[in-house]
Input
Amino acid sequence: MKLDPRTKLFMIFVVSLVVMMSATTPFLWAIRLSITLIPIILLITEKKYASALRFLLAYGTALVLTFYFLSAESEGLIASLLIGYCGIVVQFMPALITAWYVVRTTKIGEFMSCMQKMHIPDGIAVSLAVVMRFFPTIKEEYSSINDAMRMRGVMLGGGNVLKMVEFRMIPLLFSCVNIGEELSAAAITRGLGGEAKRSSVVELKLGVADYLLMTFLTAATVIFVMFKYCL
Amino acid sequence: MEKTSNKLKAKDFITIGIFTAILFAVEFAFGMLGYIHPFIVAAYVVILPLASGIPMMLFYSKVEKFGMITIVSVLMAIIMFVGGMGYLGAPLIIISGLIADFIAKSGNYKSFKKIIISFGVFNLWICANYFPILVTADSYRQDLIDGGYSAEYVSNLFAAINIKTIGILVVLAFVFGCIGAVLGKAVVKKHFEKAGIV
Output
C-alpha cells in the first residue's frame, strides 16, 4: 500500500496532537491506542516486521507496567526510573513510531514534491528534508567516532565532563560539515536553487486509502477532543 | 541565482538543516536526563546552552545571512510539536529565533558581541518549552499524573518551574547562552579555524 506523503504528514500532525492531550478515561485510551496502532500496521504492510514488532513490544511493556505496577504513589529509585522510562515511552512513542514510519517510507523526491504542492517555501522544505535524512547519519557518524575512540583506548575522556563532550562533538561536527558540503554539491548539480520552477519525477495523487485514513484520523481526533473537553 | 550575496541559497538551506539536526540531537541526548529528576528539567537552561554553544558558534560563522536562525527556530518548533511538546511554546520559539536573527544581523553576523547576545536570546526557546507548565498549570499537572508520572516527580517539577521561578530561568537561559557562546567560540577557534574549516 502506498500512501501519499500529504496523508503521512497529516498523520504526524494528528498523532502529535492526540499525544499532547492526555487520555483520562478508558475510552480515550482506546482512541489513543488505535491511533498508535495505525503506523504499526502500516509498518507491517511495508514489510518492516522487525521494527513493527520492536515498537509494539516496547509500547506494550510500558503500557502494562504503567497500568498494573506503577501508580502516582510509587516511590523508590527503581520505581522512579521505571516511571521515567514508561513516561517517555507512553508519552512519546506514538509520535516516534509515526515519525519513524514516515521517514523510512517517504522518498526525498516524494517529500519535496509534496512540499511544493502545499506551497511551503523552498527554504523550509529543503532544510526540513535535510533534517529528516540527517538523523541516521548523525547516529552512524557518532558510533564510528565511538569505535575509533575505543580503538585508541579513550573510554570516557578521563572523567572530565568537558572533555567527554569535546571528544565526541568536535569530530562529529567535522564529519557533518564535510557531509554537508558533499550534499550541497550533489544537490546543486541537480538544479536545486536554480531560478526555474523545478518539476518532479514523482506524480502525487490522493488515492482511496489516503481519503479513508484521513477521514478516520480526523474523526478520531474530533471524538477525542469532544469526549475530553465537552463531556 | 540571487545576485546579492546576503540572501540564503540552496547550500545555506542544507547547512541550516544539518545544524538543526545536530542541535536537536544534542537537545535530545541531554533532554533524556530530565526523566531522572525534575530539577534537571529546570537545569536545561544551564546545560543546553553550554552544550549547544559549540555547534551553534560554528553555524553562526558558516552561514552569516539573515534568516538562518529564524529557519532553525521554525524547524525546532516543528520538531518540538511532532515530539509531543505542544503548540503553546511553538510561537515563542519562533519569536526568540527571529529576535536573535535581528540582533545578529545588526552586527552583520561578524560582531562577536552581537553574536553573544543573539545566542543568549536564541536560548530563550528552552524556556518556551516550559510554557505549558505555567499557563495551563492545573490541567497540566493532572495530565502528567494521568500520563504515568509519579506524584513526587510532578510536585518537584512544579516546585522547580512556576510563575515565580520563570523569571530566574529566563535570565539564566540568557546568561548561560552568552557563556555558551564564549566557550563555543573558543572551541571553534581551537579546532576549526586552525583546520581551516570556517
User: Anything to note?
Assistant: Chain B touches chain A through 55 residues (CB under 8 Å). The mean pLDDT of chain B is 81. Residues 163-195 of chain B form the longest helix (33 residues). Chain B is about 80% helix and 0% strand.
